[in-house]
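Explain the record.
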Amino acid sequence: MAKPRVVVGLSGGVDSSVSALLLKEQGYEVVGLFMKNWEDDPHCNSREDLVDAVSVADLLDIEMEAVNFSAEYRERVFQNFLTEYQAGRTPNPDILCNSEIKFKAFLDHALSLGADFIATGHYARVRKSGDRHELLRGRDPSKDQSYFLYRLNQAQLSRTLFPVGELLKSEVRAIARKAGLPTAAKKDSTGICFIGERPFREFLQRYLPITPGPMKTPDGTIMGQHQGLMYYTIGQRQGLGIGGAGEAWYVAGKHLAENTLVVVQGHGHPSLQKGWLEADQLSWIAEVRPEARAGYGAKSRYRQQDAACALAFEDPASLTLQFSEPQWAITPGQSAVLYDGEVCLGGGIITV
């Protein structure tokens, strides 16, 4: 009987390297695939990552292919990124990259290679429940990446394996060291792939016009000048250039029509606290919307604990989350992701 064939997205990092190792040990026919999602750029580490991915494939004695998805990435992810920033919102391109590139373009390519499954190094899990597939949090709470995967659908999840989802990051490192993988001690990549290590403002200036304007308090007092609304996000503290005594200043809002940045003093200012949010562009993993009720948990940004909330629908295209406790710096353009215990149900893009 032929072994199931799985194409692993080898990124050149330790998580995907260990994923390939574990799958081979489990008896799969493993093929490695390196995705190039951004054209050569001095700030991008894709060449170094490709070298590491090839080294891992050689050590594991598996086939290796590199494929260029940069055209798809620019069209499906990067253009959305620019549009959102131009509209004054703060998008999360990693979420769109997962749904449009890693689990669409990559999955389609893998199936053309005869794959039964694809696999990535994400810290998440898939569980079969009746005729549906559920997306679960990764076992390591500090590394769980289900938030970034909430736009996946049943067809995608049914073909996906997350080999490190059951492991702690420390266990993944230990497995890599024991196997002598060249990526065992490699630092995790952080930040947006196409920006790399360069300053964010320097990057955006290449694509969007700069339109300075006033920074005002909620009562209209001018505190300075901003360099362009696109450079700021709700809750931002650094880079405002507001001196003086007292507590630090934070971005609390944007008025696009007047090109005004709203700033407030103090982390606990009421303008930074909000008890609800609305979201659209909804995506449900079960492909049916969940029951409108209380008792859910939600994240309005990645690095936060679940917040207890009630779910309601004003219409089929949007949702409202009412939180038990006010949430800090809810940001339009970010994703609100809904959980029922360890199950990620889906979510949408925050509008207000």
